[in-house]
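Hi V.,

You were right to ask for the full record rather than a summary. Here it is.
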Amino acid sequence: MNVSIEAQNGVKIPQLGFGVYNVKQGKDGVFEKTISEAIEAGYRHFDTARIYGNEEALGREIQKSGIAREDFFLTSKVWTTDLGYAQTLRAFEKSCQKLNTNYLDMYLIHFAAPHYVEAWKAMERLYSEGKIRVIGVANFEIEHLEQLMKHAKIAPMINQIETHPEFQQHRLREYMFRHRILHEAWAPLGQGNKALFENKVLKAIARRHQKTVGQVILRWHLNRDTIVIPKSSNPKRIKENIDLFNFNLSDEEMEQIGEMDVGKRYSVNPKGYNINPIVVNVMKLFLK
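Predicted structure:
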């Protein structure tokens, strides 16, 4: 079972997806087995990116599943070195070729690096041509969103940002809500941080519901109307992460988790991406 959230244009986005960042590829077939397990478990929303280097492998597994393309919701992202009008058009076509599809359900600008406004104009064109169903951004701060909307004909429909109980993004989240920009969380489980999973409050809530701490965290995200894309190559975790619809959290439990916010990022701070090309090149190496 899964639920969906509507973008401002009425397109329904499955609220629970599957992230494939850093899922290992190789001769051992781990990536292929992971995607096959995820599809069998019921995931239909898959999140990838050009920089992840696994679009082609993901496309093959989706085709091998025998499930109709329109039953999947596929997201990819344009990387920082591909930003610009013509460059983004080319990057989009390459991603489609690798994913073996003629359209994407969602396409995002990965970071607010130089030329992201020109990239957005290209994405608006692709959207108007029916090649992308939902256009949005990732890792954009308020200043990036405001700059983009000064030049955009179509406002961004979604922003994919680091979000977990210790980094809840309240200010940015409130801004996005006012502008009807959906909130999608990457690293929704805090990148599996051991201290987070040993948190006494989370463990007590998990025991109360006979669920895992990971399931409690993901349920918290769902209750906040956040789209989540957890990832795992462990078959047990893959099944657990989608088994979220037979329990709920009380208002008190939601408040308890809400009090865990300490403003702690586990990854890079995206501020300054639109003015610092050196950081862009460093991040290209970091994310490979």
